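This part of the workshop introduces the protein records we will be handling. Getting from the letters to the C-alpha cells is the skill we practise here. The record below serves as our worked example for the rest of this section.

…
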Amino acid sequence: MKNGYKLPAKLNRKIGQAMHDFAMFANGDRVLVAVSGGVDSLTLACVLKIWQRKAPIHFDLTAQYIDHGFWKKEGISAPGEAIGRQLQELSLDFEVREEWAIEGVDRTCFLCSRNRRSQLFDLARERGYNKIALGHHKDDLIETFLLNAIYSGNISTMVPRQDLFGGTLSIVRPMAYLEKHEVCEIAAGLKLEVVKNLCPLTDNTRREKVRSLLHTLYQDEPAAKNSLFAALSNVRKDYLL
C-alpha cells in the first residue's frame, strides 16, 4: 500500500460530492468504519484516512472488523491479522471484535447482516461514535433496490446517509456515487490485498442472482445503470399504487 497515494481527481470529486450532498461529516465527528476484508470496505477505510488528512474539519476514525470465526474451521490465520497489517500502514486505528453467537437457528445472510449491524450499533454507543461508515457503492444501491422490489415487494434501497436513534447515530456511505470498477481502481492504486470471504453462502445469494441479471441488462443497455440510479431520486408517487 502506498502512503503517498493520491486519489484520481475524477473519483475524488465523486466522493466529495456524495459527502457534500448528504452532509456526511462535521467537525468533531467520531467515525467507525466497518471493514470486512473485501475490496469495498478496505478501500473506504483508506479513502477516509486520506480525506481525514486533508479535510478542513477534524474527525476521529477507527476501523472495526467483526470476526465471524469461519477461519477457525479452515485452520488458517485470522482474517483480522491480514486486514490489520494493511490498515496500519496508513496509521489507521483498527479493532477486532468477535461476532455475537448465533444459536438455535440456521445461519442466513440476512441474520448475519442484522447481527453484525446490531453489534456495530452497540459498539458505537459504547465508545461514543456518532457515525458508522459503510463501503456500499452505486452498484450496491441499485442491486438493493431490485432485491427489495423482487423479493420483498417494496420500493426502497440503502441511502447515502441514514440518521438513527433520534439523530444520535448516522450511517454514511461516502462511496455511493462510485461504481464498482472505480472502487477497484482505487484499491489497485493502493495495492490493497482482498481478504477472502470464508462464508459458505458467499456465492449463493439473492444478491448474486440480481447482480447477474443486471450484468446481462447492462450488456444490452449500457445506459441502464445511470437511469436506474437516477430513478432512485426521481420517484413519481402519483403513478404508484
User: Anything to note?
Assistant: Residues 9-239 form a domain with the Rossmann fold fold (CATH 3.40.50.620). The chain has one domain: 9-239.
